[in-house]
Amino acid sequence: MIHFRGDEIVKELKSLGILVEIRKLSVGDFTWICRNSSNQELVLPYIIERKRLDDLAKSIKDGRFHEQKFRLKQCGIPNCIYLVENYKEHLSLPLQTLLQAATNTQIIDNFTVKFTAGYKESIIYLSHLSSLFNNIFSNKTLIGCDKCEVPNFSIQDDCISLITFKDFSKTSGKCRVFRVQEMFVRHLLQLRGLSVEKAMAIVNMYPTPRHLINAYQNGGDEKMLANLTSGTLQRPLGLAISKAVHQLYTNATLQ
Q: What Pfam family is a match, any one (predicted)?
């Protein structure tokens, strides 16, 4: 297991017999690596973002919540786990708002959301995952490849291709050069109520801000995006979001 900082949780995991290394992670708080027969460091297809409830509230208020989820979805690791620890003191948002945000993360963003009673239960959960992954992957043939080449896989496969740790670090860092589409998604995520899946649906239809602005200039109105669907349930974006995007990209002072 890889953890991004050395704190008490590392000591606790090591006391349970879990191998833990402290390394800088470009995204997420925990992931797992292995070495294949060629001595390549490969990232297992699971990554965890850990949040206490009070930190979740802060991340929603300052915009990190959507930005972090976007980066997790783009990092090349297919299974994202949002680990939420119970901590009800000094919450800057109502508890119901936080629970709804976690629910949206599971249903709309297709993350696995795990609630724990607190720090100790999180340690037990992490140790169980580590043991499970060791049992699953120790007898498989693992092949390293770049992020753009990782195919879909089944856990039943005997041979699995995984992203290298080097490529994971290089392509998911905050300081890398972003493509126009990625910057467009980040811009859209600043709008209230716009999830990663909804932003991606807009960008898939209109790859750049210029494409969207041109569509508005060619007759598109505030209802243009209302019926655009997103996510696994293919729900429409709705009129409120359509109006908000229309206002943002047709305001002459912002263009």
A: EME1-MUS81_C
